[in-house]
Design a protein that fits this description.
Layout lengths: L3 H11 L6 E2 L2 H12 L12 H4 L3 H5 L2 E2 L13 E5 L10 E6 L2 E4 L7 E2 L17 E6 L8 E7 L3 E4 L9 E3 L2 E2 L12 E8 L8 E8 L3 E10 L4 E11 L6 E8 L1 E3 L14 E2 L3 E5 L5 E5 L8 E8 L3 E5 L20 E8 L3 E8 L10 E7 L9 E10 L9 E8 L8 E9 L4 E2 L13 E6 L5 E9 L18 E2 L2 E10 L6 E9 L9 E7 L3
Parallel strand pairs: 4-12, 20-35
Antiparallel strand pairs: 1-5, 2-6, 3-7, 4-5, 7-8, 8-9, 9-10, 10-16, 11-16, 12-13, 13-14, 14-15, 15-26, 16-25, 17-18, 19-20, 19-22, 21-24, 22-23, 23-26, 24-25, 27-28, 28-33, 29-32, 30-34, 31-33, 34-35
Length: 528
């Protein structure tokens, strides 16, 4: 009796080998333009019923053999492949590029351990892989850690050294978060992986993207490390107009934090992949917006910008005590910084925060919409750099650390806002005397977008000693480490009976009116 695995292997061996073909990024761009000039053709799953109907546990029991990876033991990088099934039903075409020649990578069942799965006799293999991930010696010379994943639509994730996966990036978003408008999810349909030299520090991959409204070519150049740096060069061509084209899109998760009211009934103080959105304007000014979640309500904030220097989704709270989750390790989730290179002169940053009932769904979307948008049929070029990192470099300003809101005692119609600013954000080695600011020379400056709202009181307190216990090992007054200076700006306002939402800002200024902190931005919604 012939086993199912042997039957599959026989089917594969009977397939004709794909011949090598010429490849370059210019040829891929030309292919995308040609696709955009033709009607869209939906790609089916083409999976046999057994693969298409795999349960979560069955699919999870299929494991790629790491030592079977592309380029394993041949250089600094290795590539794993994902087996299609369960929710990953779409397949992609993968190619290895050597020099100026590409070779198709046929599906190979011998690369996988199928565990307890019993594959019915005669079941044909999947037509391709569901996606891929890259490995390198990121944390140790003895183990090839994964640091990059492309799986599903145009989604991808990466990590820096000593960090778990967190938020996700996408190649493109279309009509994200628009009420009553269906979102479109273009797919990366083909990947071309350049074989690296033995001493290479970077990995280069190309991708062909296609959706109902667009086709495009992408080039990703990745350098993993303490900061994993990814250059993204792309050309898109629209088939038809779209309401919102989102470049450099990100998806993250924010369920609840210290500023969430009401909080879910959960043993953990906070649950989120990211807790803030940091913008570096063309002027160099830094604006910080804490993320928030309002039960059963959408939040959509639009920031019109000209030649921004960068923007980031950050996980700023690094204290384990804030999460109390050993398994998820939310305190170690990575941040990501977007640095525009070209094609981002004018546009709008859309921050969309959607309601969620738990932590299993990404409910935060951040996208850049160029204005004016690309013309139909005309190639549009753009280039940006992603830095997957732990924390952005210190700016020299007081940095927003925590945001808390509530009602003053026995005054349910008023709102008390407390914002902690820290400089630096974390302890640092002593160099000379502490560089602490004289609090008597600083003041919070608060604005509210509705003139009828009364600001009753504004104040500033030095919370540095109160935060000693937050330092590692209770360092406190250490001879080796400067504790951060922590200042709490607070204000009380009366929103009035009719106000349902407010835009507020707060920043610290010195006696000469010089800004010495990030500008805190907040979108308040009445929840009770």
């Amino acid at each position: 009796m012939i086993s199912a695995r042997l039957l599959i292997a026989a089917c594969l061996s009977a397939m004709p080998a794909m011949q090598a073909a010429e490849f370059s990024f210019d040829l891929l761009r030309a292919k995308a333009r040609d696709l955009a000039a033709k009607p869209y053709q939906s790609k089916g799953t083409d999976l046999a019923a057994f693969w298409a109907n795999l349960s979560y546990d069955q699919h999870r029991d299929i494991r790629f053999k790491m030592e079977s990876g592309l380029w394993w033991d041949q250089g600094p990088f290795s590539i794993d492949f994902f087996h299609p099934g369960w929710t990953a039903k779409k397949t992609v075409s993968l190619f290895e590029v050597t020099g100026d020649q590409s070779r198709h990578l046929d599906f190979d069942t011998s690369l996988f351990d199928y565990g307890k799965n019993k594959i019915p006799a005669g079941t044909p293999p999947p037509p391709g892989y569901a996606g891929w991930r890259a490995r390198t010696h990121l944390n140790s010379p003895d183990y090839m850690d994964e640091f990059l994943v492309f799986l599903g639509a145009s989604y991808f994730r990466s990590i820096p050294k000593e960090a778990p996966y967190g938020l996700s990036a996408r190649g493109l978003s279309i009509n994200s978060g628009l009420p009553g408008v269906a979102e479109e999810f273009p797919d990366f349909r083909e990947f071309y992986l350049e074989k690296p030299a033995k001493d290479a520090k970077t990995l280069v991959a190309h991708a062909l993207l296609e959706g109902e409204s667009v086709a495009g070519a992408y080039k990703f150049t990745l350098t993993p490390g303490v900061e994993t740096v990814m250059d993204v060069e792309a050309e898109l061509t629209l088939r038809r107009p779209v309401q919102q084209l989102g470049l450099a899109p990100f998806s993250s998760m924010f369920w609840f934090g210290e500023n969430t009211h009401p909080r879910p009934y959960d043993f953990r103080p906070e649950v989120h992949d990211s807790d803030g959105f940091l913008m570096e304007l063309g002027s160099g000014n830094l604006h910080y917006r804490p993320l928030e979640h309002t039960e059963n309500q959408f939040r959509h904030c639009v920031f019109t910008m000209e030649s921004p220097r960068s923007w980031s989704l950050v996980q700023r709270d690094r204290s384990f005590a804030s999460y109390q989750d050993v398994e998820a390790a939310y305190h170690n989730r990575p941040s990501v910084r977007v640095e525009p290179v070209s094609g981002f002169s004018n546009g709008k940053l859309h921050l969309i925060e959607m309601p969620t009932i738990d932590e299993t769904n990404d409910n935060v979307i951040l996208v850049w919409e160029p204005t004016p948008g690309p013309e139909v049929g005309k190639p549009f070029h753009f280039h940006y750099r992603l830095k997957w990192l732990r924390d952005p470099a210190p700016s020299g300003l007081f940095t927003v650390r925590d945001t808390r809101l509530g009602n003053p005692v026995q005054k349910p119609d008023e709102v008390l806002v407390a914002i902690d600013f820290a400089k630096p954000l974390a302890p640092e080695k002593k160099v000379g005397d502490p560089k602490w600011e004289d609090i008597s020379k600083l003041k919070p400056v608060v604005t509210v977008n509705q003139p009828g709202v009364k600001i009753i009181h504004v104040g500033l307190s030095d919370m540095s000693m109160a935060n000693v216990d937050a330092l590692p090992a209770g360092l406190g007054r250490s001879k080796d480490v400067h504790m951060p200076q922590v200042l709490r700006a607070f204000f009380v306002l009366d929103p009035g009976k009719d106000a349902r939402d407010l835009d507020m800002t707060c920043e610290l200024q010195d006696e000469d009116g010089k800004v010495v902190s990030e500008r805190w931005l907040y979108y308040w919604k009445k929840t009770h």
